[in-house]
Amino acid sequence: MKRILKTMLAAAAAATIAGCGVQIKYSLSGASIPPDAKTFSVAYFPNNAPMVAPILSATLTDELVSKFSRQTRLQQVDEGGDFAFQGEITGYSSTTSSVSSDDNALLNRLTISVRVTFTNAVNENDSWVNRTFTAYADYDSTRLLSEIEGELIPEIVDQLVTDIFQASASNW
Questions:
Q1: N or C: which terminus of the chain has fewer CB atoms within 10 Å of its end residue's CB?
Q2: CB burial class (10 A; 0-12, 13-18, 19+) of residue 2?
Q3: HSE on the CB side for 45, CA within 13 Å?
Q4: Is 77 helix (H, G, I), strand (E, B) or coil?
Q5: Burial of 36 from C-beta contacts in 10 A (0-12 / 13-18 / 19+)
Q6: Coil, strand or helix: which one is 26?
Q7: Average pLDDT in the 43-56 region?
């Protein structure tokens, strides 16, 4: 009798849990993509910053596409994806970030800012407009930006793309 009662309670609990109306798919990447979302699209991100790095637009756009291709089940489409991204690079600057006691620069900081609009066609409430993401990396002040930006841009873009991914796919 106890065995039948336990089985019935377990079945009732399973039915209650299965009957919940919220369906979100979780993945090891931390993404929570709605089951109805099937596609994503990323428009080219033009570099509209006062200072321009030639590789930045392509690097950012390609890395965002790559991240969603690798870490979600969504299929890329040219435009109008269930998850759609567009935006622009709004800031690219190098400033002093650390000074020695005799007022000489020790470290410089390359900072990149991106303004992004995300459209979630499956759940419009999760969409957002013109959210700004900023990331930076420091480098030795004895090096010229032109010498080091090929190393720093991928590092900074990786952080930006991670932040954009988290904000859109994980409701962060």
A1: N
A2: exposed
A3: 36
A4: coil
A5: exposed
A6: strand
A7: 96
Length of the chain, please? 172
Q: 27 pLDDT exceeds 50?
A: no
pLDDT tens column, 63-100: 999 999 999 999 999 999 999 999 999 999 999 988 77
Report field, pTM of the whole predicted structure over 0.85: no
DSSP-based three-state secondary structure for 70: helix
The pair of structure tokens assigned to 85 is 């991204």
Q: What is the sign, positive or negative, of the torsion defined by CA atoms of 119, 125, 126, 132? A: positive
Nearest residue to 153 via CA among 116, 117, 123, 110: 110
Quick: pLDDT tens for 110-132.
Answer: 999 999 999 999 999 999 999 99
122: which DSSP letter? S
